[in-house]
Amino acid sequence: MLNKVILMGRLTRDPELRYTPQNVPVCTITLAVDRDFTRAGEQRETDFIDVVAWRNTAEFVAKWFRKGLLVACEGRLQSRKWKDKFEQNRVSFEVIADSVYFAERAGDAGRTGDTMSQPPRYQAPQAAAPSRSQDYSMPPASDFAELDDDDDVPF
């Protein structure tokens, strides 16, 4: 079976970080995702999709993301059954995020006309530089033999 969701939208509110009784971080956000199509004479419709992130992803989202920021989210769709205050059975659908990404540069966020504060610049961790003892140069040309006959090539 396949259950994969990829979304891009704007946060409708600041992330809400909570902790389970076992002290596991969980963060909830809501994305406003515009639909790709509109009918003639109508405004574009927007879907509001609940997203839940756990553990390190939850802490990352709570620390760096704010209302109005354009983000991309990758995860899976999950349904959850619950009872309301009148003991009526309800079902909610939410995306369980595996990854949440910045979808705009920090400088671009303010250009949309939002009054939100500028998000921080995120820089991915740099890989360690290779040691100088490793040689990544091309081997000498003498290691290669030149073929004179192309008749055996099948294409």
Helix content: under 10%
Total helical elements: 2
Low-confidence stretches: 112-124, 131-136
Number of strands: 6
Q: Label the CATH architecture of the domain at 5-36 and 43-112.
A: Beta Barrel
Tertiary shape = extended
Level-1 CATH class name of the domain at 5-36 and 43-112: Mainly Beta
Order of helices and strands: EEEEHEEH
Distance between the termini: 40 Å
CATH-assigned fold name of the domain at 5-36 and 43-112: OB fold (Dihydrolipoamide Acetyltransferase, E2P)
The radius of gyration computed from the alpha-carbon positions, rounded to a whole number of angstroms, is 25 Å
Strand order of the biggest β-sheet: 1-3-4-6-5
- Main β sheet profile: 5 strands, mixed, barrel
> What is the arithmetic mean of pLDDT?
80
Estimated share of beta-strand residues: 35-45%
- Give the CATH superfamily of the domain at 5-36 and 43-112: Nucleic acid-binding proteins
- Kindly name the structural category: mainly beta
Task: Describe this protein's structure.
With 155 residues, the protein is mostly beta strands. The protein has a domain at 5-36 and 43-112: Nucleic acid-binding proteins (OB fold (Dihydrolipoamide Acetyltransferase, E2P)). 9% of the residues lie in helices and 37% in strands. The chain is built from two helices and six strands; from the N terminus they run E-E-E-E-H-E-E-H. It has helices spanning 55-64, 106-109, and strands at residues 5-11, 16-19, 25-34, 46-54, 70-83, 89-102. A five-stranded mixed β-barrel has the order 1-3-4-6-5. Strand 5 (70-83) and strand 6 form a beta hairpin. It is extended and about 85 Å long.
